[in-house]
Amino acid sequence: MVYHIPALLKESIDGLNIQPGGIYVDATFGGGGHSMEILKRIKKGKLIAFDQDEDAAINAPDDKRFLFLNQNFRFLKNNLLFNNITSIDGLIADLGVSFHQFDEPGRGFTFRQNAPLDMRMNKNGTITASQLLMTLDEESLADVFLRYGELSNSRRIAREIVAARAFKPIATVNDIVETVGKLAPFRQEHKFYAKLFQALRIMVNHEIDYLQQMLEQAFSMLNTGGRLVIISYHSLEDRVVKNFMKTGNFEGEEKKDFYGNSETPFRIINRKGTTPGDEEITANNRSRSARLRIAEKI
User: Fold this and answer.
1) From edge to edge, which strands make up the β-sheet containing 88-94?
2) 129-169 residue pLDDT tens
3) Gap between the terminal Cα atoms of the chain
């Protein structure tokens, strides 16, 4: 089984502008696709890879230039400092869920197969998607589906879940599909479930909060001229990355100096972002929603 096929591999590695003696971070190691390409381009440099999923460790290469850390990237700075790394020359993060996580039975990341509603990227995490569905009140559930899934009928979805769980637990993929299936728009069922499962996954793994924490720490660790390379897969992530690269904050509020010039911490390398071409999408359909953004610290 293929662990993961990275999207926009060449474009993202080129975007790092790798120096042979530099220190780089792969914040989402996964199947190791990006890391292997980075190792081809550094000589006396160093690569530190993070992944909170312990399964990713099986892909770690035996290379003295490489260090794998089974940690969430929100602990980026502390882990680097603990390993005597005080600055880095570039960081790459591929925010997509790996093929392995989607396809492994029992993880519950996809609506395509019945499994326990788990969705934890870190198997040691405490809260599963099922527990959220069973414990959050109706208003909180509606907020999750609206904020993280951008589902316009979020209140109705939440109402159906609260009514159904009074009679039996919502513990599996089939349970949630049976509970809210009637609310899926005709001929848009796939899109509806994709948004629903995205919302649950983001909530279970605190994805937006942790992404923001990682970006702030990455900026503080980057050397001047260092590159930040991020691949996102939905508008919520992309908005966070775009705003941060453009303005240095997550609200996208532009700050200006005394003379009215925009103050920005980065030089944007690809202003509109880079998306996969038809050839890549044909070869790897899961890359179709990927968007790559590259910025250089000023």
Assistant:
1) 66-69, 46-50, 23-26, 88-94, 222-232, 291-297, 266-268
2) 999 999 999 999 999 999 999 999 999 999 999 999 999 99
3) 42
Of the pLDDT bands very low, low, confident and very high (cuts 50, 70, 90), residue 102 is low
Distance CA 212, CA 217 (A): 9
Domains of the chain: 9-99+207-297 (3.40.50.150), 106-205 (1.10.150.170)
pTM more than 0.90 = yes
How far is the C-alpha of 231 from the C-alpha of 275, rounded, in Å?
9
DSSP result, 39-103: HHH-SS-EEEEE-S-GGGGGG----TTEEEE-S-GGGHHHHHHHTT---EEEEEEE-SPPHHHHH
Check if the beta carbon of residue 30 is closer than 8 Å to that of residue 57: no
Residue percentage of the chain with pLDDT more than 70: 95
d(CA 145, CA 158): 8
114, 175 in Cβ contact below 8 A?
no
pLDDT of 100:
54
Q: Would you call 21 exposed, middle or buried from its count of C-beta atoms within 10 A (0-12, 13-18, 19+)?
A: exposed
Separation in Å, CA 58 to CA 9, 32, 53, 127, 231:
21, 10, 11, 25, 23
Ranking 17-26, 50-59, 238-247 by mean pLDDT, the lowest is: 50-59
Contacts of residue 160, defined as CB under 8 A and 6 or more positions apart, other chains included, come to 179, 180, 182, 183
The Cα–Cα gap between 88 and 278 comes to: 34
Residue 154 and residue 134 in contact, taking contact as beta carbons nearer than 8 Å: no
- Going by pLDDT thresholds of 50, 70 and 90, the confidence category of residue 106 is low
Q: Are 143 and 151 in contact (CB under 8 A)?
A: no
Taking Cα atoms as reference points, which of 26, 58, 59 lies closest to residue 42? 26
Q: Under 8 Å CB-to-CB from 43, ≥6 apart: which residues?
A: 20, 21
What integer pLDDT is reported at residue 1 of this predicted model?
A: 44
